C-alpha cells in the first residue's frame, strides 16, 4: 500500500508543493468568479435553447427576443418525435449533474436560489422522464386540441415579424397534431391509451372547435381575432396595407388547408384507436383490453382509470404531485393534511348553520345576490384593488405604470371546453397589458364573478404575475427562472386570495347595510373550501390508492352528492386530470402553513403585508425552497 506523506507549509513552497499552492490560491481568488461565469453561461444557454426551439413559448415568455440576445431564429412549433426519450433522458441527466455540482460560492442570492430551484426541478423531471407514456397532451379538459387555438387567438402582433412567425406556426399545426396522434398510438400500444369516454370527448371537440362552415362564413374566432390584431398593427404603422391583406388571405388559407384537415385526421385517428380498443383485433387493442381488465372499473364501461391502475402509475403520480403542487409531502402526508382540513371545514360550516340557520336557505342566496352592489367586471376589479391595498405590496415596482386589464368573453366555439375563467400571463418584458377571459356560457352570478376576478385578477394571477416579474427583473434575477413552472405556487396563491375575496365581499355587503346577507357568503366560502378539499382527497384516492367510480360515488354520497351521473362526472374529470385539484388546494394549504411559520419566526413583527411581500418577492418556487428561504429573511426588510 502506497502511503501519502503530509506536506508541511514549508514544503508547499517548493516543487509540486508550489503548484499545489498556486492551485489553492487560484481556487480561492477566482473560484467564486468561475462559479458565477458558469452559472450565467449555463443559464443563458439553457434559456436561449428553450426559447429558440419553441417559438410559441418564446412569444408568451418574452416580447422582445433581441433584448435577450436572440436575434436569429426560425419559427418552430415542436411536436412529439418518436424514439427520442433516451436522448432526452441523457440531456436531462447532464443538466441535473451540472446544477447539483455547481457551487453557490460567488453567486449572489438570486442566482444561488435559481440554481437550487433548477437542480430540484430538473431532478424531479428526470424521474418523470422514465414514465414516457403517462402524459396526456390531449386531455378533454386541458389538452392542446383546445388550448392551442386559444394561444393562437391571443398571439400578440407587436411587429410584422410576429405576423410572419404566427403564420409559420399555423402552417406547422398539421404536423404538430399528427405527432400527438402518433404519441397516442404509442401510448395505446403500451396499454396506456385514453379511455373510450375520453376519446369520445376529444373527437367531439375536434369536430366542433373548427368547422368548414364557420371558416366559409369568415366568423371563426381564429379569423376574426387575426383581422383585429392585423388592423391594430396597421393602425400603428407596423405593417404595410398590402402585407396586411396578404396576411389575412394566408391565414384563411392555412386554417382551411392545414388546421381543419389536422383536426379531421386527429378525429379519424382517435376513432381508429377507439375501434381497436373495442374489437381487440389489433395487438394494440389487446394490450389496452388487458390493461382495462386489470383496472378497478368494470371492463368495457369506457371510463378513464386512475394512474394507480397502471404499472408504475403510483410512482409517476408521486412525482407528478411534486411537479404540480410544489410540495414535497408524500401522498400519505397530503392525505393527513387534507383530512384534518376537511374536518375543520365541516365544523366551520356546521357552526355557521347552527348559529345562523337562515344562511343555508335558498332565500339567503337570493337576498345576497340582490344586495350585491356591483355587476360589471370593471367595478369589481376596482373594488378589489382598493380593498387589497393595505395588505399587499404595490405594483408600481421600479416606477413602472400600473398595468391595464381587459375582460373578454370566451368564444362560443370554445365555451364547452374551457374553464369558467382564465388569465394569460404577460411576457417578462411587457407586463403593461393583461387579459382575463370569462366563459359566459355558464355565466357566474355576481358573488362568483367577484371572487373569480379576485382569483384571476386582483390580488390573484394578474397581480401575482405582474408583481413577481417586475420585482425579479428589478433584482437582476436570471430569466431562466421563467422556465420553471409551479402550479402550487400560482394556483395556490390564486385560491388563497379568492378566499380573502369572500371576506371582502362580506365587508362590502356590510357597508351596503346588508350584514345578514354576509352570513350566506361565509357559508359559501366554507362550502367551496370543503368541496375543493374533498376533491383533492378523491384525487389521491383515485390515482394513488386505485379507487374506482363506485367507491368514489360512495364517498360523495356521504357528502350529499347522491346523483349517479354527478358522481360519475366528478370521478371522470379527476381521473382525466390527475393532480389538478391538489395543485390548487394543497398549494393553498402550503401557503397557510408558510404563513403560520412566518408568524412563529417573526412574532410581533408579523403582518400580512410582510408575509405577502416575502412570498411574492421570492417568485415561483417549490414550498420546500420557500420554507428554507423564510428562515433567512428579516421581516424588517419587507416593509412596515
Radius of gyration: 27 Å
Helix content percent band: 55-70%
- Globally, the shape reads globular
Mean pLDDT: 89
Count up the domains: 3
What strand order characterises the main sheet?
A: 1-3-2
The total beta strand count reads: 3
**Helix and strand element order:** HHHHHHHHHHHHHHHHEEEHHHHHHHHH
Tell me the strand percentage band. under 5%
Structural class, by secondary structure, is: mainly alpha
Number of helices, where a helix is a run of at least 4 consecutive DSSP H or I residues? 25
Low-pLDDT stretches are 1-30, 281-295
> What is the rounded distance between the termini?
66 Å
Biggest beta-sheet profile: 3 strands, mixed
Oligomeric state of this protein: single chain
Descriptive report:
With 640 residues, this protein is mainly α. It has three domains: 11-129, no CATH class; 154-164 and 179-310, no CATH class; 331-373 and 457-638, no CATH class. It is built from 25 helices and three strands. Strands 1-3-2 form a three-stranded mixed beta sheet, with helices on one face. α3 runs antiparallel to α4 and α23 (580-602) packs parallel to α25 (623-630). The radius of gyration is 27 Å and the shape is globular.
